[in-house]
Specification:
Shape: extended
Strand content: under 5%
Number of helices: 4
Order of helices and strands: HHHH
Number of strands: 0
Distance between the termini: 23 Å
Radius of gyration: 16 Å
Length: 73
C-alpha cells in the first residue's frame, strides 16, 4: 500500500485502517512505541495552564491548525 493508495481511499476506509494500526501498536508489549519528548512537555504545559486557570480552549479545527503550525516535524 502506498501513500497514493491511501489518499484515494474513502474516509471510512481510512478510519478502519487507522483503527487497525492503533490496535496493532496497542498489542506491542516490548515498549518499542514511545511518545516523543515534546509530547510529554506539551501535556505538562497543558496541565499547568489548566491548574493555573490560564487554559485556552478552542474548537477541534483550530486545535489542528495550531498543532500543525507548531509541530517540529
Amino acid at each position: 500500500m502506498t501513500a497514493i493508495d491511501i489518499a484515494e481511499m474513502p474516509v471510512s476506509e481510512k478510519l478502519k485502517l487507522m483503527e487497525a494500526l492503533w490496535d496493532s501498536l496497542d498489542t506491542l508489549s516490548d515498549g518499542d512505541v514511545a511518545s516523543p519528548a515534546w509530547h510529554g512537555l506539551a501535556l505538562k504545559q497543558a496541565e499547568d495552564e489548566l491548574a493555573e486557570g490560564a487554559a485556552r480552549f478552542v474548537d477541534w479545527s483550530q486545535a489542528k491548525n495550531l498543532l500543525r503550525k507548531n509541530s517540529p516535524t
